[in-house]
Prior knowledge:
transport; kinase; PEP-utilizing_PTS_enzyme; 26 helices; sugar transport; 8-stranded mixed sheet
Amino acid sequence: MRRGGDEPRISASEPALRVIMRRLREILAEPGDGQSRLDKIVRQIAGVMVAEVCSIYLKRRDHSLELFATEGLHREAVHNTRLNRGEGLVGRCAELAVPINEPDAQSHPAFSYRPETGEEAYHSLLAVPIQRSGQVIGVLVVQNHTAKHYSEDDTEVLQATAMVIAELLVSGAVSGTEADIEISKSLSAVIKGEVISDGIALGHAVLHEPRVVVSTLMADDPAVELGRLEAALAALHTSLDEMFEHDRLLADGEHRDVLEAYRMFAKDRGWQRRLGEAVKGGLTAEAAVERVQNSTRAQMLRHADPYWRERVRDLDDLSDRLLRILTGHTGEDRPVELPPDAILIARTMGPAELLDYDRTRLRGLIVEDGSRQSHVAIVAKALGIAAIGQARRIVEHVANGDAVIVDGETGEVHVRPSADLVKSYSDKVRFRAKRQERYHKLRDVPAVTVDGIPIRLSMNAGLIADMPHLEESGAEGVGLFRTEIQFMLSEKMPRLMQQAEAYRAVLAEAAGKPVVFRTLDIGGDKMLPYLSALPEENPAMGWRATRMVLDRPALFRAQVRALLRAANGRRLDMMVPMLSMSSEMDELRSLLDKELVHAKRHGYPLPSTLNVGAMLEVPSLLYELDALLPKVDFISVGSNDLLQFLFAADRTNAQVASRYDPLSIAPMRALKHLITKASEQSVPLTVCGEMAGSPLSAMALIGLGCRSLSMAASSIGPIKAMVLSLNAGQLAERLDILLGKTDIDLHANLVNFAERHGVEL
């Protein structure tokens, strides 16, 4: 083993990590350039870990790995040995961002031999990723002649050392290496995601849940840091106990299981012991939390059991909570006032959370998960906010205040863009503004096709704040008013008069235009904190909406009573969601009749016209239309749920969201059957799901015979422009031919039709 002759003697009782931390401080205090410091660092690590070889590989911008420093390999290999992306065990470590521990590396099928390094003499290898803010920027490697499996302590020491090296690289403490490596968060970046709400937005990042950045890694006094850690753990336990005893969480339910798992994890002695050992090894309390979080996550992700993979989220949330306590950021770490061009960035987000922000200052939304069919996407679209989902690790790439461009046309997120790119996108925004100006001019133009067929265009809403869009967009009414949003934003069940006042305000804002109120669609993924429910394996197909209110009729009757009071002699349109059999309509009609009798008995004016409809979301109703249609005044198609049930693909699960195509043969045939049946029985039909707001799929619906669409207010202009350029008769003839075929790309055929006939999409 090679070892510098002037190194201090290592005390057998002194932890290896503490020795490394101390010697790194000494290296940084000495004069020297970046290369000489890296050379000293690998020499010290090799000495402390009793390794024949210690090497540092750094990632270049082309994602290759370059050997930057080594103790033990041939010196001439430095800066001359490069590994392609994913090449060899070192490349595998960088690509997977996990430690690689091989007792006989040369026998591993992924081993990549480089003769210039002289590493053929070494068998055992331990490689750990050098990470900064979630990004792998290099790999730290130790090797030995003899075949051996490195211990968990060895792995943890090397991981902690790699974390310190990452900070030194980014801080410039080892600058001057004159290499083209990717180690700075100040560089521009492009992240590809999925468009979940159309539009283009330029602005500045606001992190919904800002990650605590650990800047001080090495402890000056381990005893002080240990005291800080113990105090923070005590505060963590107290906060979790208080949360568990909160009045709103006392009822049994899934949330109790989640909190209990949190509490058990927080009090896990093994976790606390590893945190304490990391501090005793020379790390600050914050750095210890981050290091243990990284190593524990890597161990959990090795398990094939989905249970352990789910626990990773618990670990991350718990670690973040502990970091916030340590750094004093125990409250919401948000700016007091949003910048006027805020781009909101989050790992995940629900619709109510999005509504917490000032919509007048919000320009864009980027989330790490979420699909176009998720509820936050629907809300973002209703607000006219450009949004991108599936933006992998966006939170790690962005800091508060960074310039960001959201391209809701291509699905790209540009972080810290260049001046030229900003100018280019500014031009695109101006072009879109001109197009929006054209849509605005169409506001009062009737939506009539080229061959004279009128198409009714309504908007979807869920709050009184949405109602001004009715006039702005030129919508003919509200085809879907989601009443559950009022319940979701309330801390307790809204009283009868509160509900009635809210509905009365909506009708007043509508100024005579029809509003279709959808009765409560709660349950599934929209549980109310004050409404207890048992946990379900598959809540989307469980106890929700109509199924819930039929079991708890007081819920339905109270809402119907509030709607009747709000109508106060005016027209009232209401529809019930999630019917799965026609007989349920009879039960709901019976409850409604009781409320009509109650209103008449107490002298309340009845609606001048009462229309009661049903949302068709469950495929079973497609085969009960002859029984259902005579019982309703209209039908609304909830295409989001209908399609996810048809394809058995959860629309909120991004991994399977692409498994169904609305513009494929199966759903088109189902919709054609439904539209034809409704027309034969003279029952008005509206499509109010996501399909209605996309020009291409809306065009297809019109070709199937649909004459009423309801969508986000921001989609009214594009859909109207499409309608005004469409010959519905020609499209219907073409669709009849296409639906009679199999194994065709219906989507491509529809695009081709639009291009050949000049339909504006």
